[in-house]
Design brief:
Layout (H helix, E strand, L loop, with lengths): L1 H14 L10 H13 L4 H4 L20 H7 L3 H17 L5 E11 L9 E4 L4 E11 L7 E6 L4 H9 L6 E4 L7 H9 L2 E4 L16 H9 L3 H7 L4 H10 L15 H18 L2 H7 L1
Parallel strand pairs: 1-5, 5-6
Antiparallel strand pairs: 1-3, 2-3, 3-4
Length: 287
């Protein structure tokens, strides 16, 4: 299955990389990197011919770069551009969705790691060191918008950056971490009604003025429609399960994935591979 999944991703990368004339096209760099990520191996492993099926070397434009070439090219904008275009195609495949869900997933690392970009903060159970994946999901397996930051960056802080990138309109569901007047107002500016339960349920609202959108969300949660709407938030658990609970999924960060730029690239590849794995067209091709 890994071979077939990689072939689909590689051909998408080639479609997004029509203008390059370099010996090692950005699509090739993306392909080699994703082969390593798909097998949870470091890049140097994917640069050895013995770790590839011979049939893959017959693919268009494919040739195996060296480790040094991979290290140099992975940080270039043209490689990032191919990833962005492939991601846009996958997001577009699920079309518009009027209900979106926002949440974050901790990506802890070892407490004795020397990673200078990782930070300590609260995780699922206690304190952990590492990073967090912040994402807004629609109905597909690829987040509509996502971001990565160190563990100590608050969900509301990243939400402000991601909501500003949303298009369309509809409802945005989140947990109590997103219940703030500023986020409700920002969501409204971009055509969304943020729906999030109160941080301190059972208490009064005090004497300060509140955003109209926040008051509407609180009223909505006490209606049958609001209950049914907020129940859609359980889809985030399914999306995260798809992402993590499979071979080649987003498992705990391996020892060779440290520092922000490496973690972001690793997570990006995992998201793309996961989206392809659960895409209807891919599922039909792999059947």
């Amino acid at each position: 299955m890994e071979r077939e999944l990689w072939l689909i991703l590689y051909h998408i990368a080639l479609e997004c990389d029509q203008l390059s004339k370099a010996r090692y096209r950005p699509a090739v760099i993306v392909g080699v990197y994703c082969w390593a990520v798909l097998h949870d191996r470091p890049v140097c492993w994917a640069c050895e011919r013995r770790n590839w099926p011979e049939s893959l070397f017959d693919e268009p434009c494919f040739c195996l770069p060296s480790q040094s070439t991979m290290s140099r090219r992975l940080g270039r904008p043209d490689t990032e551009q191919v990833l962005d275009q492939a991601s846009a195609l996958l997001v577009e495949a699920w079309a518009f969705c009027w209900v979106k869900i926002i949440d974050a997933k901790p990506l802890p690392i070892g407490g004795f790691s020397k990673d200078g970009d990782a930070r300590w903060d609260r995780s699922v159970k206690g304190i952990a060191k590492g990073y967090k994946l912040y994402a807004i999901w629609g109905r597909g397996a690829m987040p509509v918008v996502w971001g990565l930051a160190s563990m100590n960056v608050g969900e509301a802080t990243m939400a402000r950056r991601m909501i500003a990138l949303l298009e369309g309109g509809g409802y945005l569901l989140g947990d109590c971490q997103y219940d703030s007047n500023a986020l409700h107002a920002l969501a409204r500016e971009h055509g969304y009604q943020l729906v999030a339960p109160r941080k301190k349920p059972g208490t009064g609202l005090g004497h300060r003025a509140h955003a109209t959108e926040r008051l509407r969300a609180l009223e909505l949660l006490h209606t049958p429609f609001g209950h049914a709407l907020f129940n859609h938030r359980s889809h985030i658990e399914r999306n995260l399960a798809w992402l993590t609970n499979c071979a080649g999924g987003l498992q705990p960060l391996p020892a060779w994935v440290r520092r922000f730029h490496r973690v972001r690239l690793w997570v990006y590849a995992k998201l793309l591979l996961n989206a392809l794995r659960h895409s209807p067209s891919t599922t039909h091709a792999l059947a």
